[in-house]
Amino acid sequence: AELGWPELHRIPHPPHRLPLIGDALGSNPRTPVQDSMRLGRRLGPIFRRKAFGKEIVFVGGAALAADMADESRFAKHVGLGVANLRPVAGDGLFTAYNDEPNWQLAHDVLAPGFSREAMAGYHPMMLDVTERLMDHWDRAGAAGRPVDVPGDMTKLTLETIARTGFGHDFGSFERDRPHPFVSAMIGVLAYAQRRNVVPDPLAPLLLRAASRQNAVDMAFLNDTVDAVVRARRSSGGGGGGAGDLLDRMLETAHPETGERLSATNVRRQVLTFLIAGHETTSGALSFALHYLALRPELAARARAEVDRVWGDTPRPGYDQVAKLRYVRRVLDETLRLWPTAPAYSREAVEDTVLGGAHPVRRGGWALVLTTMLHRDPEVWGADAEAFDPDRFDAAAVRARPPHTYKPFGTGARACIGRQFALHEATLVLGLLLRRYELRPDPAYRLTVTERLTLMPEGLRVRLERRPGYR
Ligand code: HEM
């Protein structure tokens, strides 16, 4: 009996397990998710992996993942990469333990920041940022230069969350290189991922230089956040207009208890939202543009919808975004194959039996591999690996069992920014499809880079302005 799984021996693991290093041989510490996907394909819906004494149970099968979505028996587990982010994000929303009082407090104070009214208020700012991107893309297109898709999507999504949430402008489009906030963030995420695969006792030795750099990165992130908060406080609050996220963090008391977020907690929330609010959306947009460039017939169908629904309205309104049904399906399908937050952890809240077969003790936990759940042939068919947005037409969605599609996690701790991300990404794809034809680089093969999140590495696309369209 180990790890809260009394019958662990019945869960398969890779053959040829070695003393000390366990199953680590042949795996690449930089691509833990893709390595685990390969293992899952061989070992089945539940399996375990051990590296240097740390053993982890993985769930990739749809039936078991659905069972773990039962909130009466399972809850979010703060482990692995999420726990490794605690030194920087503390009890911020994403990294808080379920029973930490600041989770409920911040959740209740910030949830109205994602209401329909709030989103409608962010919409014009999302449009402004996309127009900045298109200025930049027009110049590249006119010069016949390919654009750096992940780099530019990161500029776009960082500017969007910074302006809508915090009334702050990072000036990303005025820079050739990524904003140093982005470089520091990537450093911190990649370090948290590496900490997963280095045994604790060896960390001081193996990660000496990396941990020193990590401290520098963390300090930079905190300084950036402090400057954003200071600017708002000195402008007397209300800087972002009618209650953006920062106003809510600084000024809103809990509706029932009257409690407010402490200064330390505000710092952690701002950082959490600046990171969680852009990195995954950037990946989602980048993967979607990859598939749209690669499959002109799908792009044409999406573009025809945009032309039909929006015409040449220069600035489509908030309500016109949700009408892009097919564009939204392209995004849904993108997040099926490449959920950019590729896994989440669940722990048993009581002694229970997973899927009627695997006893788990209270506190026992497993990592749900969303990338595998979303490719389970039992649910998605023999062509599960193929990109096909029609999997998300209304009838197909109704026909699928519940809890089979989880790009935003599950239950009480699911993504608070889901609507924000989907609205932003649908709007941006609609605007880009209307304005450009996408020409893929014929030599490009999809390479996925991992830093807790997923991103298509080195994706470049050429653009052609569509004559007569905005
Ligand atoms: C939580 C995915 C966009 C803020 C989560 C979780 C997932 C996720 C899987 C649950 C993690 C877990 O169970 O450990 C995504 C994806 C996005 C996206 C795929 C884009 C395509 C956003 C945006 C924001 C945001 C735009 C903010 C504006 C958060 C926060 C949490 C969270 C604060 C923690 C919620 C809580 O525990 O109460 N996200 N997210 N995310 N996300 Fe997102």
Automatic annotation (TrEMBL):
Signal peptide limits: none
Keywords for this protein: Heme, Iron, Metal-binding, Monooxygenase, Oxidoreductase
Keyword Cytoplasm: no
InterPro entries to which the protein is assigned, alphabetical: Cyt_P450, Cyt_P450_CS, Cyt_P450_E_grp-I, Cyt_P450_sf, Cytochrome_P450_Monoox
Pfam families, per the entry: p450
Family: Belongs to the cytochrome P450 family.
Name of protein: Cytochrome P450
Species annotation: Streptomyces neyagawaensis
